[in-house]
Amino acid sequence: MRGSIRQSWRSAWSDIWLPLANHDDAPHELFMELYPELAKAFCSPPPEALETDSPDSPSASTDETSDFFDVANDPELAARRFSEVGPEAFASDRALIRFFREAYLIIEDFGSAALNDEYVRLLAAFFSRYNLRFRVVVPFEIVPEVAAMFQVLVEEVGKQAHTNPHLNTLGNHLQSAFAALSRDGSTPDVHQCILQACNYVEGIAGASPGMQPGPLGALIKRLDVWPHATIREALSSLYGFCSDYPGIRHAGNPAGQLRELSVKDALVIPMLLVAFSGYLVDVDYPEILCLRSDLSLGQLQVPGAAIEATLQ
Question: If DSSP codes are grouped into helix, strand and coil, which group holds residue 143?
């Protein structure tokens, strides 16, 4: 996923945490407090990191024998272990965003407004520098960048389609159509971009669970993924346009043509068509948005792949 926080984590030590630790107001125990919270974002969090004050929690003597206890009680060891954590350690981007949010509260408890402001500044610069899909809103909230969300959705659809050789070919045809369009924006190339986008979505619909390859119009009626009939009809109307407008999918009906197509149409119409594919594949939307949740990370349901690897 482009803009992955996990992939950018390797730079977080030099860009966020080391400068923060060097701040005049940074306490010696900074990483002793941060590391236990960071550990909750791991693929396999230490049991001690997930403890509560319930009677069933491990005893203090158990804690004292654990490596986690050593890290959480030694400032130098905590800083070293924190700096050594790699991207592969984390369960998800969502888990890391949760850590960034909790880290703000931990830093706030140290009582230095200047240290707080420095953390916000460093984190905002980190998101911007590595083109991540979030921004920081002052005083402190991590929110998604709208344009980046659409980009990630298209990439996630493409990633799942890539597992199917037929869909991968259709996706490559769409890429090639836009490559041709970029030369001079000619009208035939505009038609090709819309045609290939329609074919791509038709292929994705035909590869959805329970479906067979066929015309998109018929598949739209059979799919039960729509939240409202008007959404189903919106895609049906787009498909109707692709079939009826002269020279896209068929000879078409010139009587219905209001104007000649332009490069504007080559961007807007394929974008609308591909966006509908978000209903046809099993994308992990909570992960893309890094939604807040009261559920523990272990309770979050991550959907499985929805596109079949081979056409039936």
Answer: strand
Q: Is 131:1 a contact under the CB 8 Å cutoff? A: no
93, 6 in Cβ contact below 8 A? yes
Tokens at 151, concatenated: 């980009």
**Whole-structure pTM value:** 0.75
Cross-strand bridge partners of residue 143: 135
pLDDT along the chain (312 residues), means of 10: 81 98 97 95 82 44 59 91 96 95 97 97 96 92 88 88 92 96 95 97 95 95 96 97 96 94 96 94 86 52 38 36
**Cα–Cα distance for residue pair 136/138, rounded to 1 Å:** 6
What are the residue ranges of helices labelled H in the chain?
Answer: 5-8, 12, 18-21, 30-39, 60-64, 67-71, 75-84, 93-108, 113-129, 146-161, 165-184, 187-206, 216-222, 229-244, 263-276, 285-289
- Give the distance from CA 87 to its chain's centroid: 16
What's the distance, CA 252 to chain centroid? 38
Output the CA–CA distances (angstroms, integers) from residue 54 to 37, 45, 64, 309, in the order listed: 18, 18, 18, 46
Residue 57 to residue 49: CA distance in whole angstroms: 11
